[in-house]
Write a structure and sequence with these properties.
Distance between the termini: 81 Å
Strand order of the largest sheet: 2-1-4-3
Largest sheet: 4 strands, antiparallel
Mean pLDDT: 76
Strand content: 15-25%
Number of helices: 3
Structural class: alpha+beta
Number of strands: 4
Number of domains: 2
Order of helices and strands: EEHEEHH
């Protein structure tokens, strides 16, 4: 076993897929351009495997290698900051959703109380 990606057994959750046809990330959007990915592959910093998603050519990358590359390029706090912003956005969305639900329940409560007192 040479230790390369093709010879290693890797869990699916540790893979990152970059779809070349649509220039979009699936699961993790860390590196901004395709050129960064190709340069890292040519430099030997990323191992990859060719794949297709719905007929579109894709590259499968190892998550820890992508994270190491991002830490080296943008600094160690970059991923933590990005993840915190993403989580904050999700929390704010959930709060707005719950406020709408509370408003609907308050209206229903008022309607039921009006019906009881009538």
């Amino acid at each position: 076993m040479c230790g390369m990606f093709c010879c290693r057994k890797v869990r699916w959750k540790n893979l990152v897929t970059f779809c070349e046809a649509r220039f979009s990330w699936h699961k993790v959007s860390i590196l901004s351009t395709q050129e960064e990915i190709i340069d890292a592959i040519k430099a030997g910093k990323l191992q990859y495997r060719h794949n297709t998603l719905y007929g579109n050519p894709c590259l499968k990358l190892l998550r820890h290698e992508v994270e190491d590359l991002v830490n080296a390029k943008y600094g160690g706090d970059y991923l933590q900051t990005k993840n915190a912003k993403t989580e904050l956005s999700k929390v704010e969305t959930e709060i707005r959703s719950l406020k709408r639900k509370i408003a609907q329940l308050e209206k229903r409560k008022e309607a039921l109380l009006a019906m009881l007192h009538a």
